[in-house]
Amino acid sequence: DVAYVISAGYIILCMLFANVLVKVDSVTPALAWLRWICSLFFAMAGLAEVEFAGTAEHGIPVGDAVAADFLIHLGHGITLHEVGCLAFVWAFYLLFSVIGFLGLKFLSRSQV
Prior knowledge:
6% strand; transmembrane; membrane; ABC-2 type transporter domain-containing protein; 112 residues
């Protein structure tokens, strides 16, 4: 039951800070750091760059203009591109797998 509550809270956090519903630049700095613990933030940045980079259309914002809104700037001129975003998503996957394994191994009790 606890896992359902924690996972629901994490999913809501990810949806808010994925840079789609709410632009992270418009969030107060006290809450803006939460984007770094959301796997969907990195997944959406990588997906936007793969889908929109290099396309062109007249009259509507597409292509590199849209992909630039999703770029992740790490500081010192370093920008995270699609391979880096994929690496972060895999790191989140590994982290959650290890937490799940350790939780099942040490926190669960046998019902037999």
